[in-house]
Specification:
Blueprint (H helix, E strand, L loop, with lengths): L2 E5 L2 E4 L3 E6 L15 E7 L8 H10 L9 E6 L5 H20 L12 H21 L9
Antiparallel strand pairs: 1-2, 3-4, 4-5
Length: about 140
Amino acid sequence: MEWIEINPRLRIDASELTFTYARSPGPGGQNVNKVSTKAILHFNVAASRSLSDSQKSTIFRKLAGRINLEGIMSVVCWRHRSQSANRRESIERFQTLLAEALHVQKKRRPTRPSRGAVERRLGDKRKRGEIKRQRRRPNRGDDG
């Protein structure tokens, strides 16, 4: 049994992936009109045995544009001239898409600047303001 590793905690059984092939608009030279080199990977998210229910709902939410009404996710690749290279790249894209969709963002802890940092910033602002004030032309009424 072959597995596709998405991240260290998740592997998907390769038998859950199906491939179809079609004629490619990409490179191919004289073969472009004869050989079906475009690889289309299909993955039934809804029926997957490798994913938990929470992972499925996350994937449905984050990758909604790639999943049809039956719950099947598609990844298409036609960059290469050979069917096998396109198949490999579609698997790599699939791994990347799922890994990014299932990545949990670390919660940000709000921080505050230290008292010293605030005082330094305000002191610098005062110095800059004083420098600019000294550049001004003196008022005529100030002479006395």
